[in-house]
Amino acid sequence: MKKLVLSSLLFLAFASAYAGGYRVGAQGQRALAMGHSGVAVVSNAELAFFNPAGLVHLENSLNVSAGVTGVFSSVRYQNTNTGAFSETDSGVGTPFYFNASYKINEWLAAGISVSTPYGSQVEWPTDWAGSHLVNEIELAAIFVQPLVSIKVNDYLSIGGGPIFVTGSVNFNRNLTRSLVDEDGARSNVEIDDSGITNWGWGASFMFTPTDELTIGFNYRSEIMMDAEGGDATFTNVPNSPAVPAENGVTPFNASLPLPAEWSIGASYQFSEKFMATVEYNRTLWNVYESLDITFPEGGAPSINPRNYKDASIYRLGAQYVVNNRVTLRGGYYIDESPVQPGYFAPETPRNDAMGFTGGFSFNINEKLAIDASFLYLRFEETDASYDFYTEDGQQVPFGGTYKSNAFLPGIGVTYKL
Amino acid sequence: MKKYIFLSAIASLAFISCEPEFDNSIEEGDFYSAGDADFSNFVSVGNSLTAGYADNALYREGQMNSFPNIMAGQFEFVGGGEFRQPLMEDNLGGLKLNGNVIQGNRLVLAFNENGTPGPQPLAGDPQTDITNQLSGMFNNMGAPGAKSFHLLAPGYGNVAGVAQGTANPYYARFASSAEATIIEDAVAQQPTFFSFWIGNNDILGYATSGGTGVNQQGNFDPSTYAGNDITDINVFASVYNDALSAMVENASGGVVFNVPNVTNIPFFTTVPPNPVPLDQPTAAGLAQLFGAYNTQILPAMQGFGIISEDEAAARLVNFQPGEGNFVTIRDENLTNISSFLQNPPLSLPEDLANIFGQLRQATPDDLITLTASGVIGNPVGQLEFMGMQVPLINGVTVPLEDQFVLTPQEQNTITQAQTAYNSTIEALANQNNLAFVDVDMILRQVSETGIPFNGGVLTAEFATGGAFSLDGVHLTPRGYALVANRALQAINQTYNADIPQVDVGNYRSIQPSNNVD
């Protein structure tokens, strides 16, 4: 089995990493297999991420769920006016999660959720047609959330806890469309910072009006990632006072929001074997107005308007218990892009997508199960442009046709005691 | 269990084999169309403009941005092959002959300690020695400095002739043999498509030297021409026809370019004819000096019948306090009165007589060369006149020499030749069903209204306009990209082709750098 998984991974390895925005929905293989709907599903410790209020409903006293997903994605760009074309070439993104809960008594459970809900990895060929906007970007953030889950009465439970985030950013682009040094090499800046930390919080409730119906609501707050005093490295800058930068390392400041999101959903147990879910997510991307990079020790700031809008995701999922060993899952979702017309930047080339998901759990024994999932994200081909790059005081649109897709196979374990 | 793993592995493969594909991908190879032409072997013949020369030098980055190389990049969409260029060794652009520098490095825009920008040579030891012969054939046959008749001149690539001035140092690097001609080497590559742009240097040397050369109309032997002479229009027509016919013979098509007007390039439009500011005392001193010239010398010369009334009027000099005084120039079309002034009754000293010899003040119709900017206003000594110490200042009390000024007569001489060349070029282009690019019109548009692109407007303003490099004559990569696009347009039209054009804004304009000596 290991060999098969490995070989299929090797086959996948030529593909590139996930590129859709920087919210990566892969925080539980069971939920992911059902269209990443989990806010109203009491199944395993994944609840710690999707709806901590439900942890108290888990039957066992100790529950652990952990997993990792390989993100293989690819974005193609072309401009038929100029003939420019390009394709991202990235490593494999690996969002992971570790969730655990411990039932202290019938009405109280404690838990912890460690996850990577935000991240991005996009690598265009160096000096490609849009290199003045991005050559490559890598964002990573790890959420650590201690939790409590309280059963208020037979119908209602609540949960939540503070979130600690630690993140890193690496972003590389050329300074302009045409600036080169004395040897013809494109002038470039790379910003890099890690160990960026901040706090947020999450809270949720779960409502169980009947044995068959579960309704859940979850909220996670916005967390601002403020990079202060990271390293900005300028290279290939010509030696001239006419250029507002010089070669070398200088500190930079930048802020990137991890937006708030809320989810509401329901699951219904149609029979002992069959369950279905429906869920709605709203991500408050509106907060991401502009990516501004400033240089406190001098140098022209880089102002990059983003003007995201709040975006919705509509999810459907189903689960079928084949026998006491095997459970099958499937799902579908529609993922609205937060990017507005004219703001389509190739560092987050995200248009509306459809997610097709599937997966299964295999119970090795009473305590241990293997959870597998896959997600295929399909994006429509889109003609889009980013119009807010300026050069010499003039707006210079960068546009073309984009086509993306992403494939995310994931594997995890569920343990209960 | 294994069954499911296996199924999911199959599913993985099925999905991952669906890389994102465009409905209509330009990588498929049949998105664009070559039309009736065959671009598989593209060869370019021409001078500095074809080579990618800029900033007074040929250097690697400029060559990479030569207009034929930009075109060749777009030809790749329609079956174009490799485009080999005789690349220089570095981005300095200087040339050596047996270790001695014979051509300086390229110009960059340097800022002095006051923050004033100006073109200066990039510092460094150039690595290109023309005695290092390159081997193989080169698609880009552009030879900086070549005139029309040089294309057919045996020995033009003979390195032994470079020092004597009979050979071209650039062509000497990649000529197939010492006796080869540029056209022979171009035709030997069996081009399926070509670009052909020649004739600029047949007038340019005369122009940039301020008209110091000879207009060789009527002299049909170009081997007797000097570098700054204007080629006879019949010689031009004859060699142009011969060279173009050789290119046309086996090619599916080609694109030819005419010769732009040299008088609206920054080399002639940057320094105005009236750049001289004067304060009150200086103006008063000059009024005294030139008052004598205006009211005594000129009427006397006219009285003796040495100069006409019209000439006397044209030679009047008027300096006023404030900005905008016209420079004084030596105009070779004026009567030289120096010897008369040295004789009685005026009996002026020789140095003063020489100053007045062919002196007049410039008019708005005179063009001052870019090279004069480092000369005008420089003090060069003093002179005693009627008991006064007159400071000798270039362009004021010392007239600018012929080499710094293109007078209306000289401009007219150039325009006549250019017009004749261009008639020949357009007629032969039509006769051979070739794509034709009216560079004369394009550069006039750049200079008069500017040409917009994605991110700005290309104008002929020196250093800031974006189209012309720091030598004021040759184009920047951005300017060459514009030319490449116009050539692609003409090709699309003539050959029913569909070849995409480049984004001009992705090509740089002038290079700023303080890496200067």
Overall mean confidence score, pLDDT of chain A? 92
What is the terminal separation of chain B in angstroms?
Answer: 75 Å
Total domain modules of chain B: 2
Shape of chain B: elongated
Percent of residues in beta strands of chain A: over 45%
Q: Roughly what is the average pLDDT of chain B, rounded to an integer? A: 94
Task: Give structural attributes.
heterodimer; A: 417 residues; mainly beta; Porin; two-stranded antiparallel sheet; 24 strands; disordered N terminus; B: 517 residues; Rossmann fold; three-stranded mixed sheet; 16 helices; Outer membrane protein (chain B)
Account of the protein in words:
The complex is a heterodimer of chains A (417) and B (517). Chain A contains three helices and 24 strands. Chain A has helices at 2-12, 29-33, 47-50; strands at residues 62-69, 72-79, 84-87, 96-105, 108-115, 119-123, 136-151, 156-174, 188-207, 213-220, 223-235, 248-258, 261-269, 274-283, 290-294, 302-305, 311-321, 326-335, 353-363, 368-379, 382-386, 390-391, 394-395, 398-416. In chain A, strand 19 and strand 20 form a beta hairpin. Chain A starts with a helix and ends with a strand. Residues 1-20 of chain A have low confidence and may be disordered. Chain B folds into two domains: 34-269 and 407-506, SGNH hydrolase (Rossmann fold); 278-361 and 367-405, no CATH class. In chain B, a hairpin with a 2-residue loop joins strand 14 (379-385) and strand 15. In chain B, the strands form eight sheets. Chain B has a four-stranded parallel sheet, with helices on both faces. The mean pLDDT of chain B is 94. Chains A and B meet through helix 1, strand 2, strand 19, strand 20 and strand 24 of A and helix 1, helix 3 and strand 4 of B.
